[in-house]
Amino acid sequence: MKPDFKIKKAKNPTLSTLIVKGELGATNGKEFKQSLMNWLQEDGELELSLHDVEAMDTLALQLIYSVRRTAGLAGRKIKMVLPQDKQVVDLLKKTGLYNILLNTK
User: Fold this and answer.
1) Residue 52: what pLDDT?
2) CA of 105: how far to CAs of 11, 63, 99, in Å?
3) Residue 72, C-beta contacts closer than 8 angstroms, at least 6 positions apart
4) More confidently predicted of 16 and 101
5) Which residues contact 44 (CB under 8 A, 6 or more apart)?
6) Radius of gyration for the alpha carbons in the chain, expressed in angstroms and rounded
7) C-alpha span between 94 and 44 (Å, rounded)
8) Fewer CB within 10 Å, N or C, the chain?
9) Phi, psi (5° rounding) for residue 22?
10) pTM surpassing 0.90?
11) Is the dihedral of CA 14, 97, 89, 38 positive or negative?
12) Are 13 and 43 in contact (CB under 8 A)?
């Protein structure tokens, strides 16, 4: 499934959510990076929803990690909504990336 990236303001106008759907990989990495950079410029709280992500590769994970670091250096936190796809979650857990995305140990 072709990815879709949308920045959405919730009922709470201080929350900006980047909703990501589809498959994230090298073929759409440039577009994903640009969406992340645009979203990072939003004011207020940030939420990254990967709820409807069906697949992701290491490039996508590196971009997410990088934007979280950039936000952290600016004193901002990003709330994560992880994928619902069981295979994606299982892979993230097996590789240890699940905890990295949640920023837990």
Assistant:
1) 93
2) 32, 20, 6
3) none
4) 16
5) 13, 14, 15, 16
6) 13
7) 33
8) C
9) 95, -150
10) no
11) positive
12) no
Residue 32 and residue 82: Cα distance in Å, rounded? 16
Reading the block at residue 88, the tokens are 């994606």
Residue 61 is encoded by which pair of tokens? 């994970």
Retrieve residue 12's tokens.
């709470």
Q: Per-residue pLDDT averaged across 12-24, rounded?
A: 89
A 10 A CB-CB count for 35 gives 21
* Whether domain 4-102 has CATH 3.40.1190.20: no
Q: 33 is written with which tokens?
A: 């990076």
- Sketch the domain layout of the chain as residue ranges: 4-102
Token pair belonging to 24: 């994230």
